[in-house]
Amino acid sequence: MFVACIGTFDGVHTGHRKIMEETVKLAAKLKVNSVAISMIYPWQYYFPNFPGLIYPVSQRIELILNMGIDNVITVDMAEIKDIEPEDYVKSLLSQGLKGLVVGEDFVFGKHARGNVEMLLKMAAEYGFELRVIPKQTYQSRRVSSSWIRETIAQGDVKMASKLLQKPYHIYGRVYRDQGLGSKLGFPTANISRGEDKLVHPRSGVYIVRSTIEGQTVIGLLNVGFRPSINPSEEIKYEVYYLDFEKKLYNKIIGMDLLEYLRPELKFDTLNELISTIKRDEKIARTWIAKFKSKPGNQEIENC
After folding, report:
1. Are 44 and 50 in contact (CB under 8 A)?
2. Which residue of 105, 188, 209, 238 is 20 to 30 Å from 141, comparing CA positions?
3. What is the pTM for the complete model shown?
4. CA-angle at 163, arms to 172 and 103, nearest 5°
């Protein structure tokens, strides 16, 4: 027996969180398990202009479980998009569905014919509880994964974090590259974000925060194509941590993107590049000091 919520839940943003909170609450009331049925990819994924997922599927599952959901079931939308919506609900009922929680604009099934109106009728007919969660808005706009992808692609990580209700976070494995940063005096860790099709933050330099071996460290992340030295044909992620010298090769590290500093630039000389990195570091240290200097302010830890 279970209560389910259904959606892609990419990002687990403020709207998703309301749905999951109600799912957990209803499951407790009915004394059954809570289940999130997560479509692996949104329907936009199957179109060529899709910018990418906010988080890898594995990270999404972790975020959902952190909301108190007992179990996550991932479903390929391509496998169920042609199922008649009534048949899909009946299949869930046969598996023990006792309650369902969806957003007010939820659609499903063949030709997206399933909707809240249909679910209300089926709930009355088949005796399961239905909760419909109103859309969540911010600055009079509906919160959506699409909007968050837009903000990330524009470099507006502050807005993305507000909509996600937590700092926008990326992670990946550190791999050995050409060691160009060390040669310039700024050793960097090169991050591979894996095989998932993920949205790329706007090219440029960001202030980031990581927790590595229990230590909170601040760094400068460059996202882009390295136009000044050995340009790359694919986007690279390189982070330079301030006051941190431990080896990170092959480690999985995560980072919160806290502030967008500037776009990626092409420099004519190495001296120009080095001078700009030093300026970026100075700005980052000033940024850190600003938060630490405020009495009782823990924003550097919690922002």
Report:
1. yes
2. 209
3. 0.89
4. 110
- CA-to-CA distance for 109 and 105, rounded, in angstroms? 14
Q: Which amino acid is at 245?
A: E
Which residues is 4 bridged to in the sheet?
Answer: 35, 100
Identify the sign of the CA torsion 197, 201, 205, 209.
negative
Token look-up 């030295």 returns 229
Per 3-state DSSP, the chain is made up of helix, strand and coil in percentages (nearest 5) of 35, 30, 35
Residue 74 CA to residue 110 CA, distance in Å, equals 19
Which residues are 260's β-sheet partners? 206
Label residues 218-237 b or e (16+ Cβ within 10 Å = b). Answer: bbbbbbbebebeeeeeeebb
In the chain, what percentage of residues exceed pLDDT 90?
71
How many Å apart are CA 92 and CA 102, to the nearest integer?
A: 14
Burial class (CB in 10 A: 0-12, 13-18, 19+), 203: middle
Pairing, β 129-133 against β 137-138:
unpaired
Which parts of 127-286 are beta strand (E)?
A: 129-133, 137-138, 141-142, 169-175, 189-192, 204-212, 215-224, 236-241, 252-262
CA–CA separation, 246 vs 211, rounded Å?
A: 13
